[in-house]
Amino acid sequence: MARIYKDTRVDLRPYSSTTVVNILIPTQGSAQRRARFSLSALTDNNLPVAKDDEEFTKRHLATQGSLYFRKRKLYPRSFLWRVINDNRVLELHCVDLTKAGIEHHEYNVTLRLDFQEEILPCGVEFADLEEHEALNVFVLTASKQLHTLTLRPEFFRRVSAIDDNVSEWCKTCVPAPLAFSYPHRLHASSPLELFVSLDNGSLLRLTRRSGDDGSNWSPLTFDERTWGSSIRGLVRWHVPPPVKYRGRNLDQNVPNAIATTSDQTYVFVVCLNHTLKIWNLATNKLVASKDLLNRQVQQNDANFLSLNPSESSFIRVFNAERALDGEYRYFVVTYSPFEDGRFKFWAVKGGLTSQLVIEDLYPDAPLRPMDPDMTGNMLFWNIADFQIKPAEAGKGMELWVLWKNNSLCQLYTLHFNFDTLERDWYTNWVSTAMESRRQEAPPVSVSSDVVDPTEKWLKYLLQPNRFTPEVLETALAIYNEALRPLASTSSNFKKNASLPERLCTAVAGTVSLRKYADDHMDFTRYPTDTDTKWRQFWQTAEDINRRRFEPVSIAYDTYSETPWLLLSDSCAVIRECSSTELLLHNTGAELRTEGTKIVDRWSHRDLGSEVGDLFEQASHLMKVASGFRKRFPAELEAACWDAIEAEIFTEPSSSIPDRLDVFRERCDFGERVSNKIFDGLFAAMNEHLSIDNLPSEVFYAILDTIPLGPGKDSDLLATHFGVRATVNGVQEMILQTRQLLVDLLVLVVFLDGEVDQEEGSTFDAADLFSTIIPLLREYEMMHWLSSNVRKSSGKPTSDATDGSGSPFSLKKDTSSNKDERVVTILEDLFASNIKPRQAIGRSQSYTLTLGIRDVLSWVTRQGEVAYPNALVYIQCDLIAKKNIDLAWDFLRFQVTTSWATYVKGRLYVVMSEYDTAALYFRKAAYLLSCGKPLGNLHEMSSTLLDIVSVDCFHNGLPKYFQHVLSIFEQVRSFSHVADFASLALQTLESELSEQDPEYNVLRTDLLSRLFHASLKTCRHDEAYSALTRYKDVALQRSALNSLITTILTASGPGSTGLKQILHFPTSLVPNLASYVDETLVSLAKKQSSFNSFLETENNKWADSTPDFQRILQAYRIARADYRGAAEIAYRNVQRLRQARDNPSSHLALAKAKDADDQKSMVEEDDPESQEIRHELLSLINLLACVDKSESYILVERENPSSTQYTGPDYRPRNIQAQAVDDDGNVSMDDIDTESPTVRRTSSNASRPSSSSVQGHSQSYAQNQNQKPQKRVIVTLDHLRREYQGELDRVSRIERGDWEFGALEEEDEDVDGDETMIIS
């Protein structure tokens, strides 16, 4: 039997944690209370964990369920329902795969309806009307309550659309007949008509008027027995015994399966007594009755048969217009499990004007379904469900049969025509290949492993879609209970520890190092013991996980012609096999014998061109290669994988024959392949091929089935559930194609080295090797994409949690992280952006296969995008989305193109490895700065490059380096900014001329960035070099100001900063030295404090900032500007006198002596005066260094109207104005010594106001608003007299000759000394 269909399984986990709504359904007794509901938080760590497999089964596995397809053909149309949580909760999902391109909403809300009591088996039914949007759900519970729920489609789109008052859309009632009997089955023929089978053998019909809400139903009981016979039936005589079921006695006439005709004129029931009965809904009478095997059975027949009351798949009613000459109104297919299981096809005619006739269409044909166990032993297999696909005129119909054996299942399909059913029944069966992705073998521990077993097992267990978190949590609880039955499981883990951490703690953490007899550690046993522990845990998880895939039911969507399979904790979409899967799952003989049937069934496909003419040999070769590799010992298989990884992750540097030799040496086939394995390969290959005369065409026939180019665009959009289904199919196809390529590669390499080909053989190992390796490299990359997950980066298209108008709120202001989904990179980056194919002239089961192939093709886009550029696109997206760990792991796939090299540099920048990043940027510089771009770099980089940055590529080296230094600027790596700015400036001069309009702009920007980067890294020489090249004088002066300020601030007090400034060759640049002086003058004017003799290093009150006044003075001395330095010294004297005569608070504190301070020697006078004398002496020496004719300085004279000290520009207020020259200068010789300006130089003399100690920045601003002031000429002689006055002052103090109080202005000094007051 050919396997031409494939199941693609999809787990039923909700879309996200914020799209699950738990609704408590009120019972009839509590219906008056206002019922409410809440959002479910799947990420809540407080959710209880199932402690054993029984609790896991009750909580998470479905006991019943199916799919319902609405009559309306608009999205949402497909709904999956299942009953979980110990038969108390009804869970509803929207499972449409596609939607119209104009549909922007997503219906991804999961409803969990908690009925607070058990839902009866077969007690859930759905119905709707094509003209109405509402979906009607009917539920029967153990307390005989019938719940009628009216669900609007918005319930599955927005939580806020759900009415807070559940009683508004959920009505409850108990029909009167249920007070005396118990319901057994529920069937809904329409939203207005229900049928309930009762345990007493009658059938209850419930109807309501259009517009009723379901709180009241009109009952009508169908019973073939009269009231009299019913009363007499209380005493049973010669009747079959009742059937025991769920603690109740069921009458043999109980309808066990119910179906109605499409026009709702007849109801068909299959009773427990193995009979088919038909009731006329117009007359409410039984009109026909037949045995399911069309036997003539009497009431007391010893061959009485009874059906299992727990099963319900016995009947399907359908229409087939114009079939069998069109004389039949309805068609019925029934199944009887007796006589090895037999199907019957019935035709119903008459009933309008004549008696209703039910006819067995094939009375002599024992229509037994194809047995999964070919031995004919059906003890372990039974039919769980079946569905029929009707067709017009009875042509091209299909019968889908689901076989079940515990957690195993098989799905068989019969394609037939009504007129040839007997012949087709024995020849037209095909089967479905069940998913093999979860059958992947666990990791094997070998002695040559360099990877820790824990790392391998974690990677295996946490593989996406392998085990759900609930399975791993339950397995962990069971494992801990078995390991430490008396210990508390939760106490062994850290609070809020992640699942991988807890797995490592529970499994790997319990392994201890063994010791030899001589107390040495046995390190070789540790990996083996660790692997054993992990294998024990895996077996526990596998046993639990296997229960999730027990078949429940099958549904068929006649609109899209797609079968669905519902499993206990997942579902499966049945799709057509791809050409590769046809060869993989079938033998050549099966394809040859059944190829005609497949072509007849798939008229929409060109099967001949898909599988080629060599399909028999290709299928055989695939089986041989797979079997050869599976017989490898663990050591050899590990060696093969090491050789493959070395081949696909390194750039080839030798010829293909040499690479083949290296591959064989790493695998060591000669030593590790036993004679038994070789003989098995020889025998298997020679069954249909000759091992020493292999044609290469067979290998290429297999490789040609692998998808290449992407498909056509579509107007459809994929739903989130459709994307999930596609991704699951892609993951499985990647695994099987990857394994196929590995099998072929190993076989080719082995045959090339171990088997000599005959003359004339077309087997070319080198050519095959060079063909398979690139394909294997691509599929290894796609396997990585499908195996690694990240938080979804897509914009949320669902408005499920839209709170607008919502009458309730549950943590509305929670972090948006709770709504983030964790998906595979393959889904997030590729699958979610690919549009599904249009199902025009073909079924959705085929378009799903095409969609899977489209995703595989779209990743690499062969023929459209070079493979290296596709790799770079993925790398850029990982970097742009901040998935740095994933980007680092993906780096091994990158090649050595210039574009890839640049992206490697971007990755190292994000990883803060700036030196390595700079090397990659330089390596890619030339090729990325010249030539034509590869394409739209903004799109090729997944928006890692913005629109502005794109212009910097293939536009010259200067712009490329400018872009690179911008990257380093963003991460504040200024040393690399300076380096690349220097490189850009070097290339700028050679690539652009000064006449180029971009030259000056680019040069100025680069110089500015070089200057500021050099400042940040204290590379002052480079900063000075950059500013000297400025052409803008204002910019140059600003930069010089920044440079000097930075140098002096970084150097602190002392002469280090000054030496650095003097080191600059300022004389080589015109006016630069004067700019330096101006900058220092500006800094000096802004200085609000100064350092004096009192502010020593041990003084905690001393100012640690540079003294710009003294630096300016020293700078002028160094440049031989003695008069300029004397002016600064003159101001210093003024400041010192001001500090002496008006001591500030911090100086007063500095003078205070602590009790434990060391006593100092008593000086001859106060330190302030000593400092003033030193400054005066320095000032005298400075003026003495110049020519006598120039030994003077000019100082500003204070405005007579001002009474406040004005800082360094202070001018003596007591200079008379009558001796003013043409320049406004007053000579010291013209000052009247008898005037009030001459005072005694006592300690009380010349006290300026308190404001004189304010900062010069304030005084300078004040002076800007004053009128120009006159200057005073201070000569060397006057300075000497000042110095002598200071000495005289000290002398008077030493001999105690001083006055108390201030002298009058007209008093003269006793010794007749006349001194100009400086302070």
Automatic annotation (TrEMBL):
Keyword annotations from UniProtKB, A to Z: Nucleus, Transport
UniProt region (Disordered), positions on chain: 789-815, 1139-1170, 1218-1271
Superkingdom: Eukaryota
The Nucleoporin Nup120/160 beta-propeller domain, residue ranges: 77-581
Location, primary (coarse class): nucleus
Gene Ontology MF terms: structural constituent of nuclear pore
Classification via InterPro entries: Beta-prop_Nup120_160, HEAT_Nup120, Nucleoporin_Nup160, Nup120_helical, Quinoprotein_ADH-like_sf
Bias-annotated ranges (Polar residues): 789-807
Record-linked Pfam families: Beta-prop_Nup120_160 (PF11715), HEAT_Nup120 (PF23300), NUP120_helical (PF21486)
Cellular location(s): Nucleus
Regions of compositional bias (Low complexity) in chain numbering: 1239-1259
The protein's name in its UniProt record: Nucleoporin Nup120/160-domain-containing protein
Positions with biased composition (Acidic residues): 1220-1233
Residue ranges, compositional bias (Basic and acidic residues): 1151-1162
